[in-house]
Design a protein that fits this description.
Mean pLDDT: 94
CATH architecture: 2-Layer Sandwich
CATH topology: Alpha-D-Glucose-1,6-Bisphosphate, Chain A, domain 4
CATH superfamily: START domain
Helix content: 25-40%
Shape: globular
Number of strands: 8
CATH class: Alpha Beta
Length: 154
């Protein structure tokens, strides 16, 4: 697992001991994505569509989530936009810019290389930017472990 960060982007890489097709299904099928990520999503991922759902992670079940799917390029790239660290159920995040999350797959010896990049933090309101970045940086580290367990056990 490798990590790279700048003020605007979080970048994580992990070699998964699973075939590329298996990793792709875990990313691109909304029900599987939700299973390892910790959310219940309403409907399939389709480029140009917005998907709504709820967080299922204990302690965060009261939170809604919105993913605006950008690109779905089978077994190569899945990307969406969202409001990072949008955890205050009383706050309306809809007027704020969203960050871009990209999942890229490539073949590697012994499995599939997964690259996750979240960018656009410089556009997040200054009062939330540092905390959103810090929390999502840690969150993606945890999510790498979640998807690793998920694709190994399925």
């Amino acid at each position: 697992m490798t990590h790279s960060t700048t003020a605007d982007r979080i970048e994580k890489h992990l070699t998964l001991r699973a075939p590329r097709t298996r990793v792709w299904r875990a990313l691109a099928e909304a029900s599987q994505f939700g299973a390892w990520f910790g959310m219940q999503l309403e409907g399939p991922f389709e480029a140009g569509k917005t998907i709504h759902g709820r967080i299922t992670t204990p302690g965060y079940e009261h939170l809604a989530v919105e993913l605006r799917v950008e690109r779905v390029e089978p077994e190569q790239l899945f990307s969406y936009r969202w409001h990072p660290y949008a955890i205050d159920a009383k706050h309306d995040y809809s007027a704020e810019p969203m960050t871009l999350v990209e999942f890229r797959l490539s073949d590697t010896a012994g499995g599939t290389e997964l690259s996750i990049v979240e960018s656009g933090f410089e556009h997040i309101p200054a009062g939330r930017r540092v905390e959103a970045f810090r929390m999502n940086d840690g969150g993606w580290s945890a999510q790498l472990k979640n998807i690793e367990r998920y694709v190994a056990g399925a």
